[in-house]
Amino acid sequence: MKQTIVARADLGMGQGKLAAQVAHASLSAYEETGTKARKRWKGEGQKKVVVKANGESELFDLAEKARAEGVPHAIIRDAGHTQLDPGTVTALAVGPADDDIVDKVTGHLSLY
Amino acid sequence: MKQTIVARADLGMGQGKLAAQVAHASLSAYEETGTKARKRWKGEGQKKVVVKANGESELFDLAEKARAEGVPHAIIRDAGHTQLDPGTVTALAVGPADDDIVDKVTGHLSLY
């Protein structure tokens, strides 16, 4: 199992900002995940992969794909206290779920 | 409330690797947190701050401080599939807890 977090590479986020947005997405999608899948993922070491997207519409398209596949997912908007405008969409987490299902949604994207 | 994640700046982790380690630490400390505090933190927008440390011993010292303050925390070791040697300590998450308690442990560290 794995969780893939798609983060926007076009916003010029600093490293710490990026990491916080990825963590936010990760936790939010985890909370959408059933107890059994959560336990299995954690038992396997909670594998996480961070990949790149460019632009808000790409994240929304991927979220729609995740929804169609029935995979837990979460889109994050930044509160906008620093660096970004309030409400800027920054990241999407897909899974945890079986690798092949997550890859149907995000397998074509490059590592961040 | 906030959660501060301390990540090692001395390992030369790539941006995606760093983000994954921070997310790992964030989720693990969250799981050590009581239900009431979790809900309050999420209700406030689950504020996360990422800061820098250098070296494993600094993370262990901070973890000991967090323990002494009774703050939920989690130290992360990398599985070592990529970039780092297996078992490398990469990050420590402190909280979620009230800002002043988290700052007692990590308030002196610089933003990542």
Automatic annotation (TrEMBL), chains A, B:
The GO terms describing molecular function are: peptidyl-tRNA hydrolase activity
| EC assignment | 3.1.1.29
Extract the Gene3D superfamilies matched here. Bit1
Q: What class of enzyme is it?
A: hydrolase
**GO terms for cellular component:** cytosol
Q: What is its main location?
A: cytoplasm
Q: Kindly list the places in or outside the cell where this protein is found, as annotated in its UniProt entry.
A: Cytoplasm
According to its UniProt entry, the protein's GO biological process terms are: translation
The UniProt entry, under SUPFAM superfamilies, shows:
Peptidyl-tRNA hydrolase II (SSF102462)
Q: What catalytic reaction does the record list?
A: an N-acyl-L-alpha-aminoacyl-tRNA + H2O = an N-acyl-L-amino acid + a tRNA + H(+)
Entry keyword set = Cytoplasm, Hydrolase
Q: Which CDD domains match?
A: PTH2
In terms of domain of life, where is this protein from? Archaea
A Pfam family of this chain:
PTH2
Give the matching PANTHER family: PEPTIDYL-TRNA HYDROLASE 2 (PTHR12649), PEPTIDYL-TRNA HYDROLASE 2, MITOCHONDRIAL (PTHR12649:SF11)
Family stated for the protein in its record: Belongs to the PTH2 family.
**What the protein does?**
The natural substrate for this enzyme may be peptidyl-tRNAs which drop off the ribosome during protein synthesis.
* Designated name of the protein: Peptidyl-tRNA hydrolase
